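DM from R.C. (forwarded with permission)

"hey, sorry to bug you on a friday — could you get me a structure for this? deadline for the figure draft is monday and I only need the backbone to look sensible"
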Amino acid sequence: MALQSIAGSPRGCVVQISSDHPLRKLFEDLVRRHFQHGAEVYDAALIEYVGGVLTDFTHTDRLYQIHNARGRRLEEVAEMLVESNPILDATSFDREREVRKHIGDFTLFFTGFFPQAVASLPRVNPLSVDTFVDYVAAGKESYAVVAAFNLFEYRDEAPLFKRLSERFEDCVDGLHLVKREIDAFRLHSPS
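My reply, with the result:
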């Protein structure tokens, strides 16, 4: 089965694309090519992870999977940062890690694929708190927080998130190249 439903959304289910789906392979191949030959990122686990983020975010339910305690979907990084803070809204340290991981993925995706949209936030939506959020800094910091969860069930994943934090800008550059290839393909494909 190519698509699977997984629990996790207050609304019921979130769609997950299977590991053998052609779209996942396409994104992983594009990320591998551009990370290795353009961004000089040769980390296989990091490349696979970022390819997975692109695949997962083809569904808006995954892109906007964080909800607050009242069930409202959070669409701004500033809101997600509040939700991740155990002193404010996070109900546990596991919730902090979950939301911080998503913030890292979300900011990586947007700064890599839609840098113009991030840069235009102050003009497009001047009342948004996100106009004051540095997406790159928030992403790097969020992956660093996830990496700090380096015990018990998170021990094996922690080094990957440390590398994502350290190489965040390189990953953004690689995603710019991936996006450029996708845009070129769309321009040259028959309508």
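R.C.: lifesaver. The longest helix spans residues 93-113.
me: no worries. The CA atoms of residues 2 and 22 lie 9 Å apart.
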